[in-house]
Every structure is written in C-alpha cells, then in structure tokens.
Amino acid sequence: MTTALVVGGIGGACAGWFRARGAAVVTSRALPLLADGGSVVLFSSVNGRHGGNELSGPACAVAKAGIIGLTRHLAKHQARRRIRVNCLAPGPVATPMLDRLTDEELAALRATIPLDHVTTADEIAETVGWLCSPAARCPKWSGKPP
C-alpha cells in the first residue's frame, strides 16, 4: 500500500470539466489502495475560488472549483481512515502558460498578486512534500507551512 496520492498537474491551460472528473475517477480508484493515515493532495487554482480571468477562462474556473469541492468531500469521508486530503490552489505559477504573456499582460497579472510573487514549481513541490509528510499530521498554523 502507498501512503501518498498526488492528483493533478502544474502548468498548461485548464482543459475544462474533465480535469475535475478525472480527479474524482483517479481518487475513487486509488483510495482503496492508500494506506490508512496516508495523504491525498489535489491541485486546483485561485481561479476555482474567484471565478477565473481572461487568461484562464470559465472552463478552468469551473473545473478548479469542482476540485476544491471534491477535496472537501473526500476530507470529510476519508477522516475515519485518518487520511488527510488537501488541495493546493496557487495563484500564477512560473510555467510556459505565463511565458506567452506580453510584458504588459504579465505586469497587469502581477499587480493582482498581493505579495507580487509568482510561485515556482519547486515551491509547489516542496509544499506537496510537506503535506505528504508526517509533519503535516497535526499542523499548528493556518495557511502555508513555515
């Protein structure tokens, strides 16, 4: 049995509803194989919380909101097995999706980020690693890990 399940990907344009459906199918098939006390990490986006923008479009917002809802459902229903279910919903990530923006578009996007920091894939990987680790079993903070 495995102790961690990471579902989703980083980068690229959202492809619509099939991403949320795909996450539901993968988790439904993988959860029986996951050891009690394990961890599931799903990927969403801030677009799932605020409705998207011109860069992501409405299909992305719908799909990512669905993943957030799936995360909440799974967290409640897997708690009896002590399986932690988390969802990462980052803002802009330094990927080829951002590379296609003009300087003006990138400046406008960065202006919407309170800390003016575009997340890197490495930062997301570190967070996923922490969420899957024993250290995340009883966090004493709210938000991003220290």
Brief write-up:
With 146 residues, the protein is α/β, with parallel strands linked by helices. The protein is 43% helix and 14% strand.
Kindly describe this structure:
With 146 residues, the chain is α/β, with parallel strands linked by helices. 43% of the residues lie in helices and 14% in strands. It is built from 6 helices and 3 strands, in the order E-H-E-H-H-E-H-H-H. It has helices at residues 17-30, 47-50, 57-78, 96-99, 103-110, 121-131, and strands at residues 2-7, 34-43, 84-88. It has a 3-stranded parallel sheet with strand order 1-2-3, with helices on both faces. Helix 1 runs parallel beside helix 3. The radius of gyration is 16 Å and the shape is globular. The two termini are 30 Å apart.
Annotation keywords:
146 residues; Rossmann fold; three-stranded parallel sheet; globular
Overall, the morphology is globular
- Overall mean pLDDT score? 82
- CATH superfamily, by name, is NAD(P)-binding Rossmann-like Domain
Largest sheet geometry: 3 strands, parallel
Rounded to the nearest angstrom, the distance between the terminal CA atoms is: 30 Å
Query: Could you tell me the radius of gyration in angstroms?
Result: 16 Å
At the first level of CATH, the class is Alpha Beta
> If classified by CATH, what would the architecture be?
3-Layer(aba) Sandwich
CATH topology: Rossmann fold
Alpha plus pi helix count: 6
Q: Secondary-structure element sequence?
A: EHEHHEHHH
